[in-house]
Amino acid sequence: MFTNRYITKGVQSEIPIVLQIFMWDCVTAVPEPKDYLQIFRLSECNGKQRIVHEQEVPEFKREYLLAFPNPITAKVYVIDDGDHCTMLLADEY
Question: Strand 37-45 vs strand 74-80: parallel, antiparallel, or unpaired?
Fold first, then answer.
């Protein structure tokens, strides 16, 4: 699962590479079985980057607070279709 990885133009232009790599690492760390849809909610919390990572089935949720300059707010999906895995902004879905 999650072997061939791709990002959309929106992710490339709006999500810093450091956060992209962090989210890919989070997906890799999810215990099996993994849902085909991983959800990341990015927001600012007390000057830090807050990331809430979830999947629906089986239920999974983790929250992270990172010291990160200029925290961003976005909702990001990582979708695995079996052949490849794509990271995209929610509004690109």
Answer: antiparallel
| Position 1 confidence tier, pLDDT thresholds 50, 70, 90 | very low
Task: Kindly give the pairing relationship between strand 5-7 and strand 37-45.
Answer: unpaired
59: domain CATH number is 3.10.450.150
Query: The domain containing residue 12 runs over which residues?
Result: 5-92
Split into its structural domains, the chain has a count of 1
| pLDDT in the model for residue 82 | 86
Torsion angle of alpha carbons 8, 72, 65, 5, nearest 10°?
10
Q: What is the pLDDT of residues 20-29, one digit of tens each?
A: 999 999 999 9
Burial 50-77 (b: 16+ CB within 10 A, else e): bbebebeeeeeeeeeeeebeebeebebb
